[in-house]
């Protein structure tokens, strides 16, 4: 089924009607009304409606020209531009003009979407390069310990990110630590930490260590308090309905800072797919005056 496109006039309205093969529209304000009256008398209602569509398409093109080729049309109103497009056109010529405009508009839509795809693809490539540059830290097995908090033992999760690069790393590094309840994905803790200064040096094999104090009630996670000995190394948090996500957010060295974009690569891929699907639909779609609906 062809798509029905509603076209409306914005700000301006052409009360144009149909013209016979022998008559032509005048693009001059003083003579347009009279030329319209001459041509509309000889045409039926269906033909008048078709020409009205063609004239509205022409008006939409005039609007586009005014916005996108402003220098060329400096000092000209949208109405004047549109009048210039229709001047001297017969009924059949107007239909041809409108079809050409519709084709151009379709091509511009496709080109615009392709530009968006190219831009997003470039962003994705840069995103993946940043992720690769940041992938020099490896999450070590998690430890669980207890610490005294006003006389009460409270679990703490010890997280180590091991530097697996081959060269000493001079500068600071930033990480995010998100602890979730696995069954509901509810966030229990969301922390960010930055380690090191501009002159700090991290050797291969060394780690950045963070401690997450477990703030939940004991009755909700009683097993974390029930180990015979602490610290507990290599604890599998999934067994306790917990999930830990650690992300290297930034690395700063030699006056250069690599920062992970806030977007997710999944969202980028989703948007790329959406744009590509839109282009496929547009390329298959043929638009003509018959597809348009007057409102």
Description:
The chain has helices at 29-40, 45-68, 78-86, 91-134, 265-284; strands at residues 5-7, 137-139, 143-149, 152-163, 169-170, 172-181, 186-195, 201-202, 207-213, 232-233, 242-253, 256-259, 292-294. A hairpin with a 2-residue loop joins β3 and β4 (152-163). The relative contact order is 0.15. Strands 2, 3, 4, 9 and 10 form a 5-stranded antiparallel sheet that branches. A 4-stranded antiparallel sheet has the order 7-6-11-12, with helices on one face. It has 5 helices and 13 strands. The chain has 2 domains: 5-111 and 283-294, no CATH class; 137-262, Immunoglobulin-like, CATH 2.60.40. The protein is of the alpha+beta class and 295 residues long. The chain is elongated, with a radius of gyration of 33 Å. It starts with a strand and ends with a strand. α4 (91-134) runs antiparallel to α5.
Query: What helical percentage do the residues reach?
Result: 25-40%
How much of the sequence lies in strands comes to 25-35%
Number of strands: 13
The shape, in one word, is elongated
**Structural class, from secondary structure content?**
alpha+beta
Distance between the termini: 20 Å
User: Order of SSEs, N→C?
Assistant: EHHHHEEEEEEEEEEEHE
């Amino acid at each position: 089924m062809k798509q029905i496109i509603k076209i409306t006039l914005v700000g301006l309205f052409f009360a144009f009607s149909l013209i016979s093969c022998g008559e032509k529209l005048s693009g001059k304000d003083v003579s347009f009304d009279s030329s319209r009256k001459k041509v509309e008398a000889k045409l039926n209602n269906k033909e008048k409606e078709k020409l009205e569509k063609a004239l509205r398409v022409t008006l939409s093109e005039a609007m586009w020209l005014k916005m996108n080729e402003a220098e060329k049309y400096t000092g000209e109103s949208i109405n004047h531009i549109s009048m210039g497009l229709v001047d001297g056109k017969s009924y059949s010529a107007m239909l041809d003009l409108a079809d050409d405009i519709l084709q151009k508009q379709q091509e511009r839509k496709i080109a615009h979407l392709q530009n968006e795809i190219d831009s997003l693809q470039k962003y994705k490539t840069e995103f993946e390069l940043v992720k690769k540059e940041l992938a020099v830290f490896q999450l070590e097995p998690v430890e669980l310990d207890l610490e005294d908090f006003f006389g009460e033992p409270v679990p703490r999760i010890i997280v180590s990110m091991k530097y697996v690069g081959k060269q000493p790393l001079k500068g600071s590094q930033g990480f995010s630590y998100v602890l979730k309840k696995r069954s509901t994905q509810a966030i229990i803790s969301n922390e960010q930490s930055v380690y090191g200064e501009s002159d700090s040096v991290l050797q291969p094999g060394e780690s950045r260590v963070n401690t997450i104090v477990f703030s939940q009630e004991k009755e909700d996670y009683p097993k974390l308090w029930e180990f015979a000995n602490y610290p507990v190394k290599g604890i599998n948090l999934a067994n306790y309905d917990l999930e830990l996500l650690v992300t290297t957010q930034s690395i700063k060295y030699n006056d250069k800072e690599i920062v992970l974009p806030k977007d997710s690569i999944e969202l980028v891929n989703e948007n790329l797919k959406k744009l590509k699907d839109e282009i496929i639909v547009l390329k298959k779609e043929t638009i003509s005056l018959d597809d348009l609906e007057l409102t």
